[in-house]
Amino acid sequence: MDFTIIPASWAPRLLSILRIITGLLFLEHSTAKLFKFPPLPMFANLDLMTLVGVAGVIELVGSILLILGVFSRPVAFILSGEMAVAYFMAHAPRSFYPLINGGEAAILFCFIFLYIAAAGPGPWSIDAARRR
Q1: CA–CA distance, 98 with 107 (Å, rounded to integer)
Q2: C-alpha to C-alpha distance for 8 and 10, rounded to whole angstroms
């Protein structure tokens, strides 16, 4: 008995969708830091010359490139590393447990980006169009 709900032929397309949606969600983090939208009190007086400010720039450029599927593998690898650093610097010192330290999103972003770095951007990307 086959319990497949989504045909395996859709896997590459779903990889593209995962990349695009993850990039859009990640873009929100950079716009909150750099453009104060959506407004978050913790980023109200953010200085670009701080570690969080530089992270915002990396997130802005990286998320746009990832959404478009340009240089997807190296960009995803860099963003994965950024999220690992963010987790261990900002979240892990608060508690061992991600549910308590607020680091669940950082962990998920880290491993989704790592997966995209390994699997590639999928067929709906500028990278895939350039290969054809």
Answers
A1: 8
A2: 5
Maximum separation of any 2 CA atoms in the chain, in Å: 58
Q: pLDDT tens digits, residue range 30-48? A: 999 999 999 999 999 999 9
- Give the C-alpha separation, 96 to 125, whole Å: 37
Burial class of 18 by CB neighbour count within 10 A (0 to 12, 13 to 18, 19+): middle
What pTM was estimated for this model as a whole?
0.94
Query: What is the Cα–Cα distance from 85 to 89, expressed in whole angstroms?
Result: 6
**In angstroms, rounded to a whole number, what is the distance separating the alpha carbons of residues 16 and 103?**
25
Q: Helices 11-34 & 72-86, crossing angle to 10 degrees?
A: 50
How many CB atoms sit inside 10 A of residue 50's CB? 10
The conformation of residue 128, written as its DSSP 8-state character, comes to H
